[in-house]
Amino acid sequence: MAQFDALFQPIQIGKLTIRNRIVSTAHAEVYATDGGMTTERYVKYYEEKAKGGIGLCICGGSSVVAIDSPQGWWKSVNLATDKIIPHFQNLADAMHKHGAKIMIQITHMGRRSRWDGENWPHLVSPSGIREPVHRATCKTIEPEEIQRIIGNYAQAARRAKEGGLDGVELSAVHQHLIDQFWSPRVNQRTDEWGGSFENRMRFGMEVLKAVRAEVGRDFVVGMRICGDEFHPDGLTHEDMKQIAKYYSDTGLLDFIGVVGSGCDTHNTLANVIPNMSYPPEPFLHLAAGIKEVVSVPVIHAQNIKDPNQAQRILEGGYVDLVGMTRAHIADPHFVNKIKLGQVDQIRQCVGANYCIDRQYQGLDVLCIQNAATSREHQGLPHIIEKSSGPKRKVVVVGGGPAGMEAARVAAERGHDVTLFEKKDALGGQISIAARAPQRDQMAGITRWYQLELARLKVDLRLGVGADAATILDVKPDVVVLAVGANPFLEQNPHWGAAEGLVVSSWDILEGKVAPGKNVLVYDTICEFSGMSVADYLADKGAKVEIVTDDIKPGVAIGGTTFPTYYRSLYPKEVIMTGDLMLEKVYREGDKLVAVLENEYTGAKEERVVDQIVVENGVRPDEALYYELKPGSRNKGQVNIEELFAMQPQTCLAEKGDGYLLFRIGDCVSQRNTHAAILDALRLCKDF
Amino acid sequence: MLDVVLPVLVLGALALALLGALRRIGLWRQGRPSPVSVLGGLAAMPRRYLVDLHDVVARDKVFANTHVATGGGFVAAAVLLILVHGFQLESRVLSWALIAASVVMFAGALRVAARRRNPPVRLSRGPWMRLPKSLFAFASGVFLVTLPTAGVVPASFGGWALAGVLTLVVAWGIAEMFLGMTWGGPMKHAFAGALHLAFHRRPERFGGGRSTGLKPLDLGNPEAPLGVGKPADFTWNQLLGFDACVQCGRCEAMCPAFAAGQPLNPKKLIQDMVVGMAGGTDAAYAGSPYPGKPVGEHGGDAHSAIVLRGGHEGGRALVDAETLWSCTTCRACVEECPMMIEHVDAIVDMRRHLTMEHGNTPNKGREVLENLATTDNPGGFDPASRMNWAADLDLPLMSARGSADVLLWMGDGAFDMRNQRTLRALVKILRAAKVDFAVLGNEELDSGDVARRLGDEATFQALAARNAATLAKYRFREIVTCDPHSFHVLKNEYGAFGASYTVSHHSTFISSLMEKGRLALGEWTGGRVTYHDPCYLGRYNGEYEAPRKALKGIGIKVVDMERSGFRSRCCGGGGGAPITDIPGKRRIPDMRMEEINATKADVVAVGCPQCTAMLEGVVGPRPEVLDIAELVAAQLVAAPAAAQRAKKDVAEEVAA
User: Predicted ipTM?
Assistant: First the structure.
């Protein structure tokens, strides 16, 4: 038997044949513009997965069926209008052309939304109980509204069918309206829509019947449910098995998708899209439990990222199809690379959750490591074509994300690429980030680049801190500076960085400075770095207080990741304090005293500790740039109009002696990994 | 005195040679019957010799001329010698003709001698080393004894002493040339070779024809042995064929297994069969041995087992099993043999015995045969998964359609992820050309190729019968397949069971689509491309042009390897060789890849799933291996900007 044969067994879902077992499950893309339409960006994003060989995409996480379920916040797909039909036809054609199938998740979100925008609706829910994640208050739904919404579901399904899609998935997961009715925690009704099991099931059942009546037998209708809400008063796994069987036994369903965990609290939400702190497929057992009691194919996603893992899961018969959604955000050509025997070339999701954390902020889903994802419509390529122009000698300085991507892309273009990195290993700040507890998988980004740069025969000069002479010695046609930045401790001279009173989070994470026993972490950034260093110190046994002048430590970290930091920090008794600014540091005996000032009252307080770690972001390393700038043909300038339009830099086409100079990533200004990689890709794709 | 001695000598030698011939014929007649047309064969023989055989010999121009002079001179001289000196016909004209013939022969012998001074390794030594001297003896002796007859010198010239010496010289020549011909010696090839040509088991091969399909076993006849277990199980004309061998070693020089250091040398195998037929050991064999097997340890007779069961554990018979299982059935030996000996037939005959009588198919062989018995495919895949590769293609099924212009025969590559890319590319091309085609779907079974080459004739015949019954249900104009093994079997081996079809290899079909202008194609802009001729397409079926034409159709100028066309070297994947997996010093595909690398190609175009698998199994650095269908599909202009596609995208597109 072949290594991945279980992945490539076609399967019937209803009357539909799916070519393989790999699915991109429903997720909110935040790309449906023009009032929730699947416009060009949306179509191209999915088409890339179809081109890449995927079997089935279920698009449009939380796509709404009714106008009182707002879509604008997350630019989800709007199935409440016939205007969607031609857009669906574009989507369906694009997918079918490449042999993939396409379905859409449809839902009414009930109370799990925001009312303060768009049509300013009164949100509805079975018993009017507030939803904490969105801080959403709501009204108690009336039977007339229930009937209307059942009809909305049926009409939405009709629109999907008329648009040529292959099926719909009813969302009864994430505490949307259907499973709000299921859960006694939020359904306290005493009428026919609440109370007994059958009554709580009624709304979902009526929706299912109405949808099936509308679309007939030849159109796929599935349902996505949770495997266990993980709330003390929520639906248990046994409850969910009962529910799954109840719906499956109607014979009206064609498949069931299972997600482990409920998600109407910050803490459970983090389970739903497990980040890198989770083990592989942490909730497979829940999906397998559901599969035991139903007679339709079961789909399960959640931390399935590797082809071997997927093969093992399918071979074991736990579920029938594997959702590899983030895996495809990181690499839409995942399936083809398996088929081509290029498993080593798969850019594997590392679980940084940049994608989903942006979504929960209402921002478009992007991949931390693949800047081409969802920018296909702008012409950013997943497969870099060889240049038909002149072969260039490209020198990249710096082996962080910007530099690694620049070297990869330039080498794929067919150029002769040399990469200088002053450290002995690639990775840059990724390597530092990966040193923290639960953050080690960040290094997966570097691992892929290492393999790719080796495959592409990039001349790696590690341990070489290139100066201008070293660079010019190679006689480059193009120099890309990606030398990064350094911790910025000098912003406030009273911190005493020059006297060694404070150290940087890099010093700690890189092991240059041993962890103290009693440590104050001062974090102005409030993202991963401060939390990571606090976690690292606590892990080494230090007593840690992390203080910020912002609202709360970690406040800028997305919704699926701050909970996992908290889960790690609270048990280690790390104190998290907001609203205090570090005014100055002084030494008293063998202790350090930190003077803190309250942001709002001006009141001062002091901490006596033996180590102070300051996380104040980074300052670009500009020296080399200004040394090389005068001698460069383009004076180091990037034409941003061309760059933003994804067009080639005009200077590349101009003839002349000497070198072109570009700088990208944090050596220009501090941003993030995705930004660094995007800089490199959009600039170098036209080399 | 010479006029007394010579007739006795010549006629006596003729009589002894005749006795030898009868004995030789007796040896051949130990074999099983094989009906031939005696008169027809003898009548056809001169043409077969002068045209068909000479075409093969003439691949070595210098030696062909040498042989014309030596052999032609000898035949003329021998006939005239019998007339002039045997029957004492007094004719100056004949005598002068005899002198002229001996001079021509002498000239040829000079070249033979020159070649023997430092002979290439493929040539056998031993008695063959004295042959030039014997030729000189015959030619010069005949020349000198004929001078008086021609009146150049007086009859008494030189006196008794000289006459005595000349008699001895002539006797030496005659002994080698006349007695050696039938009693055994280098000249045996002339006698056996002539009759072998007359009674060849594949007369279709003469006159430009081709006959490469294996001959079926009559499984219904309980008397017939299942294959060849002992030399006497060969048919008499096969035994005769073995005797025709000149030990020139052209087969040895071409055999991929020999080159890889596997224990096979086709020349030695044929000589072993001769040893077996006559009884004795191989000790006198003076050519290259089977790699790793010293000469002198094997022997047998016509009625003893050729292969000792469990022979590798100690005892030896005529040939070890691993010698037989080393063959890739590539036919390079047969193609190269100037005597048109059928090595592959003999090997498969002996394999049949090992597999069907003893179940002794080595390594994965038994597993593969069991898979075929239980799943109808060698890989043992779920037979219902044959169409998995096309789950998203909506391929028309014959069972639904009943008829189509083209029946696309998928082959067992349908189960293989790599070959699925080729199949998908082919479907793309058929669709682009709007070809009306359908597939058998799960009704298709393995063609039986591997079973047959592994000697399992019963499984082959069962698969053939069932496939033929399925095919008989549907109407189609031709079968198209990207698998040369299926192609060969359907085209050349099903016929014996009453099932005959028009079958095209996909390269042939694609190049005809191109000729008809049915494909809009861009131009290849990738790097250098070489082409590897698959044995079962090339040597087995003579199709060397269509693949090159198809590649030319997308602007590829093939850079041919040194061994290409009819001299292409096998990838190592034929004949079940990867399954029986007999170890050697090197792997055949590695050697082939070296030849590919020597062309500095960026891509090696292939036309066979087996070749693809073998060549892709070679560790890099090596060129990319792409099927002709993949290369052509990537140039279909329906895909925008196809012409600019970089070569890596070819694979991407096809996988999709």
Answer: 0.84
